[in-house]
Amino acid sequence: MLWTLLGIFAGGMALNLTPCVYPLIPITVSYFGGHATKGGEGRGKLVVHGLCYMLGLALTNSLLGVVASLTGGLMGAMLQNPFVLIVVAGVLVFFATSLFGLWEMRLPIGLTQAAAKSYTGYFGTLFMGATLGVVAAPCIGPFVLGLLTWVASMGSPWIGFIVFFTLSLGLGLPLFFLAMFSGQLEKLPRSGGWMIWVRKLMGWVLVGMAAHFIRPLLPGQGGIILLALVSISAGLHLGWIDKSQANFRAFPLLKSGAGIAALVLATFLVATMAMRGPGVSWKPYAEETLKEAQNLKRPVIIDFYATWCTPCRELEEVTFHQPDVVRLAEKNFTMVKVDVTKGGNPYYEELLRKYSVKGVPTIVFLDAEGKERTDLRLVDFLPADKFLIRMRDIDTPKK
How do the domains of the chain map onto residue ranges? Predict the structure, then answer.
């Protein structure tokens, strides 16, 4: 989640470079500068105005994130349906085509004019931040709506709040610092075709999110292959096919660097898939399997799993394929998997109630006596090294 939030923060900063937001930077900085007077008191007021601006931006976006997560609270169950996955991916690709320039998102003129009104005082600054998304909707709207679709699939209000609060920080911090040091404004590169390139970059981010959504529908390593193909396409397009130009010398290097980075990512995905060894051997859940484990004095690990669950797939593809985890599991453990991808199975529903499973992934650790070690229960992705610590904690050495 930390890396995800860092990526969202970077995405928020990148949105400042789109054609709809970048021209607002001088206006925003001039607005802040108008509230500054000479002396420490003026700088202090400027800081407060900057914070009010960011607060307004964060309130609007975070509210969107919470609402999306609440309305999508059942999205996890809905994602059991392949049709829903395809629709969600289609929505993301649809918004991506707007960022690629195939169509333009336009809001009603009355709403845009209301958002562009100027108000005085700290409330005016707060209002200005809160309505930035409306004024810049043609550029940031498709990305924000795509992100809303993803947040809705998570079904967690806290995650929705944190994701969009982080996006707001990325979008607002550059404006805040430019307002604090408005003398540096003249050093900013001029508007140009490079902003169209940044907009297309955000479009490829949405295409990558769409590929991520339909991964569960693809057999075997098809999901990784699809992500690699998206990365290759993005790299070739952003690095060399796109003809956007800029009036600063570093732009060609930036384009080539982005293209090479995407190709390196694709190579890494393919190499990881090729080098991955055998994974843990799982058994289906059965009371006889648990009794046999007790007789053999073997701890049991029960994995409640679903293909539409991202952390579940990450556990399966990373942690449960790590050689040390595989060897220890084969030697000393009974590994049981409960696949709840398709809901409505009465037997599995009873297991969910029996083990108080609120969501997936849920990893339950039973000791050699068949009793759960609740302190070891896992409800999220865990890297192999930390998962091994839990395995060794419950493991009963053979005498």
Answer: 2-192, 283-394
Q: Which of 182, 192, 186, 183 minimizes the C-alpha distance to 248?
A: 192
pLDDT of residue 32: 66
Question: How do residues 356-387 score in pLDDT, each as one tens digit?
Answer: 988 888 999 999 999 999 999 998 889 999 99
Please enumerate in sequence order all residues whose Cβ is within 8 A of that of 349, keeping only pairs 6 or more positions apart, or say none: 343
Number of H helices, E strands in the chain: 18, 4
Task: Tell if the pTM clears 0.70, that is, is over it.
Answer: no
Average pLDDT, the chain: 80
- Residue 139 among the catalytic residues: no
Q: Smallest Cα–Cα separation from 373: which of 267, 322, 300?
A: 300
Cα–Cα separations (whole angstroms), residue 192 to 15, 18, 26, 220, 348: 15, 10, 15, 44, 57
Q: Which option is the CATH number for 283-394: 3.90.1170.30, 3.40.250.10, 1.10.240.10, 3.40.30.10?
A: 3.40.30.10
Cα torsion 220, 224, 226, 228: sign: negative
pLDDT of 302 above 70: yes
Catalytic hit among 20, 52, 139, 312: 312
52 is catalytic: no
